[in-house]
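>> Question from a student workshop board

For tomorrow's exercise we were told to take the sequence and the ligand below, predict the bound structure, and bring the output to class. My setup keeps failing. Could a helper post the expected result so I can at least see what it should look like? The ligand is copper (II) ion.
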Amino acid sequence: MNKLLLILWFCLSLLITQTGIAQYNRLWIPDTLSGTQFTLRMKDTLSQILPGQQTLTEGINGKMWGPTMFFNKGDTVHMHVYNNLNDSTTLHWHGFHLPPVMDGGPHQIVPPGTIWEPFWQVKNRAAMYWYHPHLHMTTEKQLNKTLGGLIIVRDPLEAAIKLPRKYGIDDIPLILTDRRFDAQNQLVLSHYGDTMFTNFTLNAQYNVPAQVVRFRILTASAERTYNIKFSDGRTYYVITSDAGLLNAPVAVTSYKMHPGERIEILVNFSGQSNKSVVLRAYNDVLDNGEPGSEPNNSNTNPQLRNALGNRVFDMCRFDVGVQTTNPVTVIPSALTPVYPIDPATATVTRSLTFSAAGNNCPPNAFGCGWINNKFYDFDRIDYRVKQGTTEIWELRNNSSIGHPFHIHDVSFNIISSSYGGGGSYSGGSSYSASSTLPATMAGWKDVVFVPAWSSMRFVAKFEDNCDSIHPFMYHCHILYHEDAGMMGQFTVGDCFVAGKNSGNNSSSVETLVGKGKLTGNKNIISSLPEFTVYPNPTHDKIFLSLKDPSLGVYYVTVKDAVGRTIYMLPGYRLQNAIDVSFLTPGTYYVILQDDKNKQVNTKKFIIK
Ligand code: C2O
Ligand code: CU
Ligand code: CU
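>> Workshop helper replied:
Here is what the output should look like for this input. Compare the format with yours to find the bug.
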């Protein structure tokens, strides 16, 4: 009896603490990983996100979200991705320039209980990127469960500038996202949440030093736009646009961020010890069609009704403490020169029209679809880009909601020239129809928000990563739009350049693959790569040997007898044996793709 009373008293006091006194929670800073070998283990977990009952989440190396990985430009990084979830997934390196089989898009499926080991040479500019699941139709569900993480790339150009870079001290990541919960504190799949989280911390607070602090901000929300501003209206300085530093810091007092976008900002807290300021979303002034502008009460669609709609809300409170040693105290006057791609060098222009038809049409209905009247098709290549070409992509938004458009493989430059859409494109957006692009957008980007009824053009160069079989994605980064098929795919092919090409797959000479479907392609000209698996049968390891070693190995997949992928390995791994000691006895298959012709062959092996 006494014991029961004690427990009751304990629970009650907990409740009081959590509802009354503990107004703020210290901002959670994800752990870090660095080097060239990275191990990521995805698993189903429980996290204390709200007071009371724990929440079922999906975490990477921890309870929720994942570690922040530091890459150095020029390094070859190796990922060891373990899927210990109960579900299939993929892991996509958002913003990275890499070969398509390493990209982690919807085609690089990692089934539960298996390992995926992509690798690539880091060619991206210093900036913050991120990684997240990308399995078609489950991206929103898995990201909602907090699966994802940040990647910070460092390079010598950035290192030469006097910028804060003490992670968690004066260089602070801020992951903006919103969630909805049920009465049992479990995550509900919803385009908008009712609760704001910064780094998955409710009512976040952080102590900052009295000096220049760098915040690296990611919008990881499913749909919401954030109009970022401080409670005292102070000026802050934008220094990056998604995928690289700007020419110089741009002074602003507010900035609108859309899903998938990243900015880094500098805030000068010098001489402000003991002061406090709150970073807020001033979403009461969003334009119509900017996701998050919908008032909470005036919507008949329950998916759009949410407690944060069309209002001002707090994201993180900062309390200024003392200075650290070697503080940065001045905002630099210059960063790195941006040399944008000259649109005049573009030889191809592609036009993509977004329509709202997808909202009302059954999937695959005729004359219906999100992009150019089409829904995403796993087996359809929408565009075949020739390696080495510079292209202009025109994005025309013929719908009443803005779409944050994202493309894989390349970073692009938004073209500032006006684009007179005509028809129903009023060109009403501040930057799509004017000839001046805001300085904050005059750098390297991989997501661009195309406002309702307006249009946008960008220029990109598809320099390498030639592979005419495996596609890259482009899509709207509103997660339910993407999952509902507002996505397409392109290959970068035709890369035979005098026996050479650049990129990771440096020896590849392509075979023309015709216009057949991606899977079951029968138009293949050259012969299959012959190879043997030995020892066979085996019990702990296998070696592969190509009959014609000059073909080289591009990628190897190991499957079990029912077709489940066990292993996905890039070619370089085959200098050593493949460890199969953890497999149960039975029949397995090795599927080898050669580096030269990108042809695929399958061999059986037995585990005793
Ligand atoms: Cu952030 Cu296709 O992804
Ligand atoms: Cu991406
Ligand atoms: Cu969209």
